[in-house]
Known about the structure:
The chain is an alpha+beta fold and about 130 residues long. The protein is about 20% helix and about 10% strand. It is elongated.
Amino acid sequence: MTNPLEESPIEPIAAADPSAIEATSPETPAPPDRYECRSCGYVYEPAKGDERRQVAPNTPFESLPETWRCPVCGVKKYQFNNIGPAGKASGFDENLGYGIGVNALTPGAKNLLIFSVLGLGILLLLSFYGLS
Ligand code: FE
């Protein structure tokens, strides 16, 4: 008599291949982090710079002079929090594995998911007019 578990068609999980991870990593450098003012919520976007204080676009936050102030409320650089690059999944990193994968979606992907489901729901309701 054989053990039914030994005949299981489930393939063993392949060990992680470090060369595969390196091959999929992006060649371009990661986008620079954005910083949010703890006082007023203003977000410094490195891609935009700060027109009001003559900071050129594509200037990372770390390269701003120590005399730079929040263009909205005027607080100093140390009052800003790093909120990661644009398009990063929101929330704490340790929570990204929960929520059937939805937590790891970027804000744009979440918007697409939400409005797709809304659109499908509306189409379903409109389809009831086809019943007679
Ligand atoms: Fe501010």
